[in-house]
Amino acid sequence: MVLGVPPHAPRLRSGWRHCPLSVLAAGVALCVLAGGGATAAATGAGDRQPLPVRIPAYVLKANYLHKFTPFTQWPASAFERSGGAFRLCIAGHDPMGEAIDRLAQGKRIGDRAIVIVRLASVGKDADCHVLFLGLSRTQTPQDMLALVAGKPVLTVADEALEAPGAVIQFVTVGGRLRFEIRPEAAQAQGLGLSSKLMALSVSRAGDGR
Q1: Which residues 6+ apart lie within 8 Å of 84 measured at CB?
Q2: How confident is the model at residue 156, as a pLDDT?
Q3: Considering 65, 85, 152, 192, which has the largest number of Cβ atoms within 10 A of its Cβ?
């Protein structure tokens, strides 16, 4: 099953489905994915120039997690145990709090409702489609990644972690929250990533890819 393949993308093999990319047109996340910025423009009465408004990092992270999904392809086997839901798991410290809950409320990925699952620790039976790796007192990022290795799980690591095996790693470049994508990790997890998303990846040095 494919979630979020662009409508005009080449047809994939049988067993995958398509989902439109109209989700990108929504508010803050459009600015985030298009420019990777941590600011938005606002104007007051009589103002000639837009005034920059800094978007909190936790809001940006919540939006990123939601917006990664239309550009990611999961195999049908990823949904055999999910009970029809799309499970976005947060392991360890949750820097997003209610922001991710509000974002997911009433939203769907394809025909599946988004369910936010908070995990004190990652287990071998973790049933996740997206797994956000936060700081943990009981598990290292390597521990978490080892428990979902080879499974169709989009792993996203917080910027404070050393998690070279994660598919996506948040990074701070020029004072702005961006993300680095590791295509070899996505392949190892059995996931496909859109070239549009890959084009927005940056390296830790801040160079575009």
Answers
A1: 112, 113
A2: 98
A3: 65
